[in-house]
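Researcher: Watch the backbone:
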Amino acid sequence: MIPLFKVHAPKNIGAKLQEVFDSGFLTEGVYSDKFEKSLCEYLGNDNVCLVNSCTSALLLACHLSDVKPGDEVITTAMTCMATNEPFYNAGAKLVFADIDPTTGNIDPEDIKRKITDKTKAIVVVHWAGQPVDLEEINNLAKQKGIKVIEDAAHALGAEYHDKKIGNHSDFVCFSFQAIKHLTTADGGALVCKSQQDAERVRKIRWYGLDRKYAERTGRSRWEQDIIESGFKLHMNNLNAAIGLEQMKSIDFIVNSHIKNGRYYDQHINNEKVVKLCRPSDGSSYWIYSILVEDREHFQQYMRDNKIASDVVHIRNDRYTVFKEFQRDDLPNLDYFSTRLTNIPVGWWLSVDEKRYIVDIINKY
C-alpha cells in the first residue's frame, strides 16, 4: 500500500536524543533556543515562539486576542477540530463561514456577511497548504479592529505574495505533529506580528516566568515578579532536538511535496476527478485534495490498487460539541465535504509510484 502519510525520521536522531539526555537538561533550554532561532531564519520572522502543539499556539493566539465569553469568532468548519476548540473553550461563539469549493479555504465574502460588533477574531486555515486570500481578509479585519489568526498546520513552507506563511497576520500557528511537513513527534509554534506579543508569549508559555531573566539581569530567576498568569505550553529540549535535525531536510521535504503536487496538477486528467484550484503558486501541498462524486467507491478502488486515500479532516460543525453553532447557510461546505478525499503526495513517493497513482486515477 502506498501510504498517505509517512513520518520523516533523520537517521542519527537516536544519537541526538541521547545527547540531550546526557546533557541532563530535558525541558526548555539550549536545544529549543536553537530550534526557535532556526525557524525564525527559515520563516524570515524573529517573532517565532515554540510551544508543545499547534493547539497550544491557537490557545495562546486566542488569549492574546482577548477572546472572552460571548465574543464571536468567525472561522471555518473545514478543518481539524483542534482549530476551533480553543475558542470554544474560551467561551466564544463560533460563527462558521462558508468556503470556496474550488480551494477548500474560507470565503472572504462570507466573512464580510458575518462580521458583527461582537466579532473579536477571524480564524483561517490554509487548506492542504494553499494560502487563503490574506490580503483581503487582513484589510477587512484592520478596518474593523479584528485580529486575524492563521491555522497554518498545513502550510509550513507555503508562500503568499513572495513571503513565507508566518509573516502576514497577527498570529500564525504551525504544527509539528507526527505527519506534518516537519515533525518533532509533537509540537508547534506561534508566530506573532509584533515583537511585544512575542515577548509576552515567551513568558506566558511558562507560567508567566521570563526564562531569560537571569541571563539578562545577572540575578536569580526566582527574584523576578510574575505580572501575568500563564500556562505550561513550552517545547522541551527533546522535541526541539528532533526539530533541529528535521530542519536539515526541510527544503527537501517541502520541495518534494510541491514537486509531486504540481505533477498531479499537470497530469491528472479525469472528468470524474475534480482537482482544486491554485489561485497562487504558493501552496506547500501538505496533502493533495480531490473531489469525487462517489467517495466510498473511489476509495475502495484506490485500496484495490494499493493506494491509500482518506478525508483526513471532516467538517467539525457536525460534532455534538459544536451543535449550538450549526447552521444551514454553508452550501459550498456541504458540496466540498461530501466529495473530499486525499491522495499521497509526500516526499516518500518514488517517481514510479507518482506515475502509477496518476495512471490509476486517470483510469477510474
Notes: The mean pLDDT is 97. The first helix runs from residue 13 to 23. The CA atoms of residues 205 and 233 lie 5 Å apart. The two ends are 18 Å apart (CA to CA).
